[in-house]
């Protein structure tokens, strides 16, 4: 069945879902996502996720038994990140986090976590821990590792967690490891949406220092929705057993295949160029905000992330809603500090998706100025209309996944690339799968 026929059939068979599909295409095409967790999947990953690998799944219960696809994906993850052991079968970062908690802690143990990160993944059931937090300092807007060390020595945590989902600066992982070792604690670093930059060598890696490293496989890696747990050799058996004990016996072949190919793409020179462009674009967005008169938190960004400070009295939730009306998808947040009486309302702005869409520094600087104008006018209707019109103009010829980020040895046009912007990646995957099935049918005959 050709993709157009499939689309027409869906329109007549299920007009409700077809309508939502078309709405989603328009939303992604003409709105600019600056959400840290939103990024287009690569064509290879989209194809494999929708391929016949998805027609079934496999289950197995042996701690040391791995399927061929799982071996390939895990091996590529270990090579890409320089890790001793990789677990690739967990479904998402929340599931990966629960595995780590179960694998490393006992009920009642003390956890010292940056901004109480991961508390949301263990607040129910039997997983009750004593959570403490360290934060940025209100005056310097930086993490003070001397203060973290003092807190660790005083509280003697069994686990220290660092996850920079709302911190745009690099941290000294060697020093953080020294702090953890000094109190006999495990160190767990969730590199979150920095995973792509770490894989490409464009950001410091915690792998040589942390006992456990986790990250989602979508977002910065252009892969399927999933997560990876990297561990030391000493913890490998313990964590593998915990994965099975927590119910992760099922392996989805289509996800593993898409994941394996994503790791191969991330090991390419083209992907490194993408990550370098992400860093350039983040600085350009930051400059645009500052040009407009908006303060950015934590100093100069060193990642994909820019934190735009909001005026006094403005809430992050309200401003994010106004940004949505102007054509920007953004994440509002409240940045905690070591002073419990002081926090910063912010917008967490990521350039991962704009970079995937082939936007460069000039466009991101313009976007920063538009966002700054909306912030400083309190979301005035005139500023919203101006931004919406300019964003549509900027995005008019932008694909959802630019061909420039395909590996240089590949010559293929994704269905959601420049030449056909109205076919969703799911429909394109169906088309390619149908073509493959016709070829197999020909060979069988």
Question: What strand line-up does the widest sheet have?
Answer: 3-9-8-7-6-4-5
Low-confidence stretches: 413-445
Number of helices: 16
Structural class: alpha/beta
Main sheet: strands, sense, barrel: 7 strands, mixed
Number of strands: 14
Order of helices and strands: HHEHEHEHEEHEHEHEEHEHHEHEEEHHHH
SSE layout:
Blueprint: H1 3-13, H2 15-30, E1 32-33, H3 43-49, E2 57-59, H4 68-81, E3 85-87, H5 93-104, E4 110-114, E5 130-134, H6 145-155, E6 159-162, H7 173-182, E7 186-190, H8 195-199, E8 212-216, E9 227-231, H9 233-245, E10 250-252, H10 253-266, H11 269-292, E11 305-309, H12 316-325, E12 328-329, E13 331-336, E14 343-350, H13 352-356, H14 361-376, H15 381-395, H16 425-444
Parallel strand pairs: 1-12, 4-5, 4-6, 6-7, 7-8
Antiparallel strand pairs: 2-10, 3-9, 8-9, 11-14, 13-14
Helix pairs in contact: 1-2, 3-10, 3-16, 4-10, 5-9, 6-7, 11-14, 14-15
Plain-language structure description:
With 445 residues, this protein is an alpha/beta fold. It contains 16 helices and 14 strands. The chain has helices at 3-13, 15-30, 43-49, 68-81, 93-104, 145-155, 173-182, 195-199, 233-245, 253-266, 269-292, 316-325, 352-356, 361-376, 381-395, 425-444, and strands at residues 32-33, 57-59, 85-87, 110-114, 130-134, 159-162, 186-190, 212-216, 227-231, 250-252, 305-309, 328-329, 331-336, 343-350.
């Amino acid at each position: 069945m050709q993709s157009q026929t499939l689309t027409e059939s869906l329109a007549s068979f299920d007009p409700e879902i077809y309508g939502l599909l078309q709405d989603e295409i328009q939303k992604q095409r003409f709105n600019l996502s600056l959400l840290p967790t939103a990024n287009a999947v690569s064509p290879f990953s989209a194809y494999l996720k929708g391929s016949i690998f998805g027609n079934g799944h496999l289950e197995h219960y042996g701690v040391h038994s791995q399927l061929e696809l799982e071996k390939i994906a895990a091996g590529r993850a270990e090579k890409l990140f320089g890790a001793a052991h990789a677990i690739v079968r967990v479904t998402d970062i929340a599931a990966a986090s629960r595995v780590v908690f179960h694998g490393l802690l006992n009920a009642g143990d003390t956890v010292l976590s940056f901004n109480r990160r991961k508390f949301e993944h263990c607040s129910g059931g039997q997983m009750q821990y004593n959570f403490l937090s360290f934060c940025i300092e209100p005056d310097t807007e930086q993490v003070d590792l001397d203060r973290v060390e003092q807190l660790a020595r005083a509280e003697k945590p069994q686990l220290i967690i660092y996850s920079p989902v709302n911190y745009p600066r690099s941290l000294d992982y060697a020093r953080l490891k020294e702090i953890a070792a000094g109190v006999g604690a495990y160190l767990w670093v969730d590199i979150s949406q920095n995973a792509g930059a770490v894989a490409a060598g464009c950001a410091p890696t915690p792998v040589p220092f942390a006992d456990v490293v986790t990250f989602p496989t979508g977002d910065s890696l252009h892969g399927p929705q999933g997560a990876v747990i990297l561990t030391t050799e000493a913890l490998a058996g313990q964590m593998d057993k915990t994965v099975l004990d927590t119910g992760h016996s099922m392996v989805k072949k289509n996800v593993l295949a898409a994941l394996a190919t994503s790791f191969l793409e991330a090991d390419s020179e083209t992907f490194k160029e993408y990550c370098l462009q992400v860093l350039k674009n983040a600085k350009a967005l930051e400059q645009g905000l500052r040009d407009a008169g908006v303060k950015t938190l934590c100093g100069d960004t060193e990642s994909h992330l820019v934190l735009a400070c909001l005026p006094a009295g403005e809430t992050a939730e309200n401003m994010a809603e106004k940004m949505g009306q102007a054509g920007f998808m953004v994440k509002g947040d409240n940045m905690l500090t070591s002073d419990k009486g002081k926090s910063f309302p912010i917008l967490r702005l990521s350039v991962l998706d704009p970079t995937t869409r082939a936007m460069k520094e000039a466009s991101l600087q313009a976007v920063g100025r538009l966002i700054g104008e909306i912030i400083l006018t309190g979301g005035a209707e005139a500023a919203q209309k101006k931004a919406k019109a300019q964003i549509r103009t900027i995005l008019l010829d932008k694909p959802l996944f630019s061909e420039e980020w395909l590996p240089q040895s590949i010559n293929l046009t994704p269905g959601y690339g420049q030449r056909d912007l109205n076919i969703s990646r799911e429909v394109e995957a169906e088309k390619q799968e149908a073509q493959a099935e016709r070829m197999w049918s020909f060979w069988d005959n």
